[in-house]
Amino acid sequence: MLAVLLGPPGAGKGTQAGRVSDSFGIPQISTGDILRENVRTGTRLGERARAFMEKGELVPDGLIVDLIAERIEQPDAEGGFLLDGFPRTIPQAVALDDLLRQKRRTLDGVVLIDVGDEEIVQRIGGRYLCRGCGRDTNMPGLESGPGTCPHCGGELYQRDDDRPETVLRRLKVYRELTAPLVEYYEGKGLLQVVDGTGSVDEVGGRILHVLHQMQVEHVK
Ligand code: AP5
């Protein structure tokens, strides 16, 4: 399985990518997670990416493509992988096609998780992460501060780019630079749109269903 999860910020790509990764036994490759780890550990890539991420802008294509080219060469990606948050621009998608062509591989499919802006703003506004166990606790409408992690009692925090003004910027960037990928992958006959509303289990069931169908089509 070689697939892409596409969708606006907060659509549930990260949440669902973990499930897909478990179900198919393939690594989840999240450019957002890789960049945040580089920012946290203070690498050169992290230093360069930080300013873009804090403003809700995309990190330059060249940096991201190099990062992906290196990541998909790792041994755990040999049997396939799920891309979460990449590609995010047409030049990134073209670069991915080139990288896969060099490896004589092709994408099985691209799943767009469809969620409206209002729900996205609500989901991201309620997202708290734990400094202890790293889990994501969603508390929509929370006004009195996040308190402690319900799983381990650790300290909760919000991502720097989850501030309301940055979320609006991320949505605008998505519409301008990432949404054109819908047409790009539709044109290649690779796109499947999944309703991203409902419970995490419901959305997960829909995504696994279309991915299994794509895999069957690919084998035919
Ligand atoms: P990245 O980390 O990829 O951010 P994003 O796409 O904006 O993704 P999010 O993590 O906010 O959303 P998600 O769709 O993964 O949803 P999640 O599952 O977390 O990128 C961050 C930044 O890095 C970018 O802005 C950019 O600067 C840079 N970057 C990354 N990749 C790049 C690239 N390729 N090129 C250039 N720059 C790049 O869910 C969100 C919340 O909703 C969670 O709290 C979750 O619990 C909740 N939730 C999930 N599903 C449901 C549901 N069904 N019902 C209710 N709540 C739900």
Walkthrough of the structure:
By secondary structure, the protein is of the alpha/beta class. It has helices spanning 13-24, 31-41, 44-55, 61-71, 90-102, 117-125, 164-178, 180-187, 200-219, and strands spanning 2-6, 28-30, 81-84, 109-114, 127-130, 136-138, 156-157, 191-195. The chain has a single domain (2-27, 74-219), classed as P-loop containing nucleotide triphosphate hydrolases (Rossmann fold, 3-Layer(aba) Sandwich), CATH 3.40.50. The chain is built from nine helices and eight strands. The strands form two sheets. The chain has a five-stranded parallel beta sheet. Strands 6-5-7 form a three-stranded antiparallel beta sheet. α6 crosses α7. BIS(adenosine)-5'-pentaphosphate (AP5) binds next to α1, α2, α3, α6 and β6.
Q: Any idea what the CATH architecture is?
A: 3-Layer(aba) Sandwich
Alpha carbon gyration radius: 17 Å
Count of helix runs: 9
Q: How many beta-strand runs?
A: 8
Low-confidence stretches: none
Mean pLDDT, all residues: 93
Give the quaternary arrangement of the chains. single chain
Task: Give the topology, please.
Elements: E1 2-6, H1 13-24, E2 28-30, H2 31-41, H3 44-55, H4 61-71, E3 81-84, H5 90-102, E4 109-114, H6 117-125, E5 127-130, E6 136-138, E7 156-157, H7 164-178, H8 180-187, E8 191-195, H9 200-219
Parallel strand pairs: 1-3, 1-4, 2-3, 4-8
Antiparallel strand pairs: 5-6, 5-7
Helix pairs in contact: 1-9, 2-3, 4-5, 6-7
The structure holds BIS(adenosine)-5'-pentaphosphate.
